[in-house]
Amino acid sequence: MLRSKYFRHYLLFQPIRNTQTARIPSSLHVQFRPNSDSLVDLKDTLSKLKGLAGYMRNNSSAKLCLSGNTGTDLDDKAAPLGTSDTVLNYPATLNGILTSTSALMLARASVIRQLLIDHYHIRPSRINVQTGAQTFGPQGRFVGVVIRTPY
């Protein structure tokens, strides 16, 4: 299962492509509580989302896709990896409730989506959330970001 006493849970933004002249960091680390969609530090997270939100505000036709990913614990060698239905349906704990890996992926990505909506006033219709992949180790716990702009 996706439990760990030793590793922090992060939301990592992958490099954003097609940003024109925007100054958006290539990666942002947002810490979650273990087995949860609860952020450790809301103020820090909002600060880290500021550049992405600014880009979205300045590019009103851009759409954002947040892809939730997970990483296994290092001692969980039996956990499936990848994007298959087996991975997405693999047991995970989310806020004390036994659920699936896909639910954990979507919950964390949805937290970031809601922050962009509530704190930065990005229209909900511009932000899509989807499941990603599960990789070995805690470095796989991130949300990929893809910005699409019409040409």
Question: What is this entry, summarized?
Answer:
This protein has a single domain, classed as 60s Ribosomal Protein L30, Chain: A.
User: Order of SSEs, N→C?
Assistant: EEHEHEEHEE
Structural class: alpha+beta
Rg over C-alpha atoms, rounded to the nearest angstrom: 15 Å
CATH architecture annotation name:
2-Layer Sandwich
3D architecture notes:
The radius of gyration is 15 Å and the shape is globular. Helices cover 27% and strands 26% of the residues. The strands form 3 sheets. A 3-stranded mixed sheet has the order 6-3-7. Residues 1-11 and 13-21 have low confidence and may be disordered. The chain has a single domain (9-148), classed as OmpA-like domain (60s Ribosomal Protein L30, Chain: A, 2-Layer Sandwich). α1 packs across α3 (101-120). The protein contains 3 helices and 7 strands; from the N terminus they run ββαβαββαββ. It is α+β, with helices and mostly antiparallel strands and 151 residues long. β4 (91-94) and β5 (97-100) form a beta hairpin.
Secondary-structure blueprint:
Elements: E1 9-12, E2 29-32, H1 42-58, E3 63-71, H2 85-88, E4 91-94, E5 97-100, H3 101-120, E6 127-135, E7 143-148
Parallel strand pairs: 3-6
Antiparallel strand pairs: 1-2, 3-7, 4-5
Helix pairs in contact: 1-3
Descriptive terms for the model:
27% helix, two-stranded antiparallel sheet, 60s Ribosomal Protein L30, Chain: A, 26% strand, alpha+beta, 151 residues, 3 helices, disordered N terminus, 3-stranded mixed beta sheet
